[in-house]
Design a protein that fits this description.
binds zinc ion, mainly alpha, single chain, globular, 407 residues
Length: 407
């Protein structure tokens, strides 16, 4: 197990670094000139800002990725988890919960310097940061509190099922996991997002009328159309349509409304509605459930095997250590699936773009994309292989080319 773990860890890290260097080379090679299709819509200065921003983020990523790998090694083979297990003891289920949560919080704490650097140095340098130190600390506090208040009962429930679910405990665990993810998809916009952002009903009459018409044309109802104060933290712009059933709500970042004209906001929203209308959300939840079933099945195979724990540097077999190890180590083995999942996601994005073009204005969608890529300093010239691994959205030139094609 140790050899397998180390091989997966270093292979994943190696591929990440290789992709990152490829991307940097590609972006730099295309820095001097705006791609032809955008020559008229994006100034050279903005194109170069996007290149520099992309490279700066890649460089930070090349420090964070090895740091994460080192942290995982320190916690596992380095004996960190065994030490932590000694602190909490093996006695009760509550001690198990404390073990899992403290390990998660400790790992976050170790990576905190990178988050601080990203927000206050990197994002600041490119004039995206709007977060104040006070807001940053209060966000951290809320996140830690949520980890304990929500994560605590969830981990407790999972450990209880493992202990009391009988031979088929893993099916129960899976069913509970599916139920919990559905619940959070439903509850996120009403219960969690408001802890971090303020939502105010959209008041712009022209935009409101446009959106109402769009909803009527596409047969949607929504609990409300809200503007979110994303600009308190960052000037990046976006929009989303979220929730399930009657809890659905439309959320526009305040920054989006500043960057885009009403017809463009409408087309971006039509894209989001497309994801719903075309069932992408259900496909995604379904795929997540299928992967989850595979995950718990594999987990059931290893959870009481001593070699699994010994191979990962943990000396005692226990459901809580097994759960944590599995959560941390499994992504190393699913990493090669990345290109498949992103390819699937990119198909959905094309379909949603087509939906937007059909139900609003294709030209407005194109100009919205161009403005958003420029505003967010997203690169127009990604490396194809890096893109295949990491980009859930097709690169802008491909999206614009598809939208420009006569139907
Ligand atoms: Zn989309």
């Amino acid at each position: 197990m140790t050899a397998l773990f180390l091989a997966a860890l270093f292979a994943t890290l190696g591929i990440r670094l290789w992709l990152s260097f490829r991307q940097e080379r590609h972006v730099r090679a295309h820095r001097a000139e705006v791609p032809e299709a955008f020559a008229e819509s994006i100034p050279l200065k903005a194109h170069q800002k996007a290149a520099d921003y992309t490279v700066a983020r890649l460089r930070l990523g090349r420090i964070v990725a090895p740091a994460r790998a080192a942290l995982l090694l320190a916690f596992t083979l380095g004996g960190g988890l065994s030490l932590l297990a000694g602190v909490w003891g093996q006695g009760t289920r509550l001690a198990g919960v404390a073990f899992v949560l403290s390990a998660l919080l400790l790992a976050e704490l170790c990576l905190l310097p990178f988050a601080i650097y990203r927000t206050f140095v990197l994002e600041e340098r490119f004039a995206f940061n709007r977060t104040t130190p006070v807001l940053f600390v209060s966000d951290l506090g809320k996140q830690a509190l949520l980890t304990v208040l929500l994560g605590g009962p969830l981990v407790y429930g999972a450990l209880w099922l493992i202990g009391n679910g009988g031979a088929g405990w893993w099916v129960w665990l899976w069913a509970a996991w599916v139920g919990v993810s559905l619940f959070f998809t439903w509850a996120y916009p009403v219960l969690i997002a408001p802890l971090f952002f303020k939502f105010t009903p959209l008041r712009d009459d022209e935009l409101l009328q446009r959106i109402r018409n769009l909803l009527r044309r596409t047969g949607f109802s929504s609990e409300g159309i809200f503007v979110m104060d994303g600009s308190r933290r960052s000037s990046h712009a976006n929009a989303y349509f979220t929730g399930l059933g009657r809890r659905k709500r439309i959320v526009l970042f305040d920054t989006l409304c500043q960057v885009l004209a009403p017809p463009e906001v409408e087309s971006v929203l039509a894209h989001e509605l497309g994801h719903f209308k075309l069932g992408h959300l259900w496909w995604r939840l379904g795929a997540g459930a299928a992967m989850g079933l595979l995950g718990v099945a594999v987990f059931a195979l290893v959870v009481d095997r001593a070699w699994f724990y010994a191979g990962l540097g943990v000396d005692q077999v226990s459901a809580h250590a097994g759960l944590l190890l599995f959560l941390w180590v499994a992504p190393l083995f699913t990493f090669p699936l990345g290109p498949l999942l992103t390819a699937w996601s990119r198909r959905h994005e094309y379909a949603a773009d087509a939906f937007a073009a059909a139900h609003s204005d294709g030209q407005a969608m194109i100009s919205a994309l161009v403005k958003m890529y420029e505003h967010n300093a997203a690169t127009l010239t990604p490396d194809p292989i890096h893109s295949a691994f990491h980009d859930t959205h097709p690169p802008a030139p491909l999206r614009v080319a598809r939208l420009s094609k006569p139907v």
